[in-house]
User: Which sequence fits this backbone?
């Protein structure tokens, strides 16, 4: 049986992040909604005191409209958005936060380092539409928790993809059972040796924390990394006897992390080849 050892990332993967012609969403746990365009996705976590948005797709009105309409579609209220939490300071994650902030005034969260990175090193320097365009209210770091109603999100420093990248662990529920979900905030490894080394260290650190917390749900913020669109399509038509495809167990989460490690090894091989 064919199984991939690394996610497939191509030039199209990168250009697809700006394709706003298509959005999809699914309620993947009773309290967790995923919204995706072709390559990038965000999550909305429902608590007893309101909604927490994790990442915000791309800086454009279409992404905002898609998030709002998905929230309404599952019977929640966008007016209940209380927090906007960002994994890192790239435009495909800071996304349409400007519109969310203007409409609903949530508290915004990111690491101090990546707030500066977002400001000083925009992904597309020649494109003002991708520049930092809203304020961060609260700087978060390793060991912090964000609490809203019955939900607590644990924060971990996972630099490498960006200098101040973060990853999160939080509870989700299905039919009354609580599971711990982990969102690995960094996507593909960077191109220089120091950053790849840093990325690998972060991955080891996060996996250790995930094992301590009995994480059994693997989440990603890019669809190319975890067959995101296929998992969403499956969730939309999942029948009652079918398993939750995000629930991979502790062993599954370890294997999920291995895919990112393999991406790093590929990157290291490419770097080594430059010296041969
Ligand atoms: Zn990124």
Assistant:
């Amino acid at each position: 049986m064919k199984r991939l050892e690394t996610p497939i990332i191509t030039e199209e993967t990168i250009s697809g992040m700006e394709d706003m012609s298509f959005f999809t969403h699914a309620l993947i746990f009773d309290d967790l909604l995923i919204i995706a365009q072709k390559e990038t996705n965000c999550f909305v976590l429902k608590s007893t005191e309101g909604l927490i948005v994790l990442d915000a797709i791309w800086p454009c009105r279409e992404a905002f409209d898609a998030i709002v309409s998905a929230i309404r579609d599952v019977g929640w209220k966008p007016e209940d958005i209380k927090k906007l939490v960002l994994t890192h300071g790239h435009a495909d994650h800071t996304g349409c936060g400007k519109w969310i902030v203007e409409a609903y005034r949530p508290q915004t969260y990111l690491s101090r380092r990546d707030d500066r990175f977002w400001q000083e090193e925009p992904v597309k320097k020649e494109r003002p539409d991708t520049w930092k365009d809203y304020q961060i209210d609260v700087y978060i770091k390793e060991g912090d928790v964000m609490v809203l109603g019955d939900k607590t999100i644990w924060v971990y420093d996972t630099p490498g993809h960006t200098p101040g990248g973060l990853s999160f662990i939080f509870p989700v529920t299905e039919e009354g059972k609580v599971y711990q979900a982990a969102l690995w905030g960094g996507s593909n490894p960077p191109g220089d040796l120091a950053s790849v080394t840093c990325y690998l260290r972060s991955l080891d650190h996060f996996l250790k924390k995930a094992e301590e917390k009995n994480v059994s749900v693997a989440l990603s913020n890019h669809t190319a990394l975890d067959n995101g669109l296929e998992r969403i399509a499956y969730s939309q038509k999942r029948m009652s006897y079918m398993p939750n495809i995000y629930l991979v167990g502790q062993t599954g989460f370890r294997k999920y992390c291995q895919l990112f490690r393999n991406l790093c090894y590929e990157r290291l091989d490419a770097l080594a080849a430059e010296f041969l």
